[in-house]
Specification:
This protein is of the alpha/beta class. It has helices at 16-27, 34-47, 55-63, 94-104, 107-120, 133-137, 151-164, 171-187, 209-223; strands spanning 5-10, 30-33, 67-72, 77-82, 85-86, 126-130, 143-148, 200-203. Bound molecules: cytidine-5'-monophosphate.
């Protein structure tokens, strides 16, 4: 059967990854969380005190970073590994969230991640979520969806996700972080967050996850 690329881009915490995981499961495709890759690089930079303004240090650090995904046999979920270590929990902390957009503006970081993502999706049959999948990583993706939602809805979701991981973060702090990341992501020079011309807009403020999955699956079915 024909295999395609499904690109889900959009703002932070509007249900991209939950939708992407479910779509990948229904299709038997790999799910690639590109945000997790930028988060893993950020964790490395923070742990090694890399000076983001020094291109040589950034380039050297990138040469020492390997980000991979492995299936957790207990949860059956793909988890992210940084140089062989599972960092799935560390990369979701506010410590990383507060820095990830600053790291993601760096062109050398983007080049390295995009090349890796293109390799992962070379044989198609992938659902990828991120900010620049439909515009830069796979501009030829058969299905492109741009997801958004109002900031309160997104912050509430994010707060619940963090709470499930025993992290109590004030609502206002989350709103601030989401707005700051949206701003940096949308205004950076290199591959800013924007809706691809041929992407379908999906506002998830008032719809369920099942409805989001249905929306994407209808588009997928029309391409298979
Ligand atoms: O998807 P998530 O919210 O985990 O992404 C974290 C951050 O990684 C985003 O705010 C953005 O700065 C960066 N990112 C990116 N390009 C992608 C995916 C994520 O710049 N394709």
């Amino acid at each position: 059967m024909k295999k395609i690329v499904v690109a889900l881009d959009g703002h932070s915490s509007c249900g991209k990854s939950t939708t992407a995981k479910q779509v990948a499961k229904e299709l038997g495709y790999a799910y690639i969380d590109t945000g997790a890759m930028y988060r893993a690089v950020t964790l490395y930079f923070l742990e090694h005190y890399i000076d983001l303004t020094n291109p040589k240090k950034v380039q050297d650090a990138l040469a020492h970073i390997e980000v991979t995904f492995h299936r957790n046999p207990k949860t059956h979920r793909n988890e992210v590994f940084l140089n062989g270590l599972n960092v799935e929990d560390e990369i979701r902390t506010m410590y990383v969230s507060n820095m990830v957009s600053e790291v993601s503006v760096i062109p050398a970081v983007r080049r390295a991640m995009v090349a890796e993502q293109q390799k992962m999706g070379k044989r198609r049959g992938v659902v990828m979520d991120g900010r620049d999948i439909g515009t830069v990583v796979f501009p030829d993706a058969e299905v492109k969806v741009f997801m958004t939602a109002d900031v309160e809805t997104r912050a509430k979701r994010r707060q619940e996700e963090l709470f499930e991981k025993d992290q109590l973060v004030p609502f206002d702090e989350i709103v601030e972080n989401l707005q700051k990341r949206d701003h940096i992501d949308s205004t950076r020079e290199d591959s800013p967050l924007r809706q691809a011309e041929d992407a379908h807009l999906l506002d998830t403020s008032h719809i369920t996850i099942d409805e989001q999955v249905e929306f994407v699956m209808r588009l997928v079915d029309s391409k298979l």
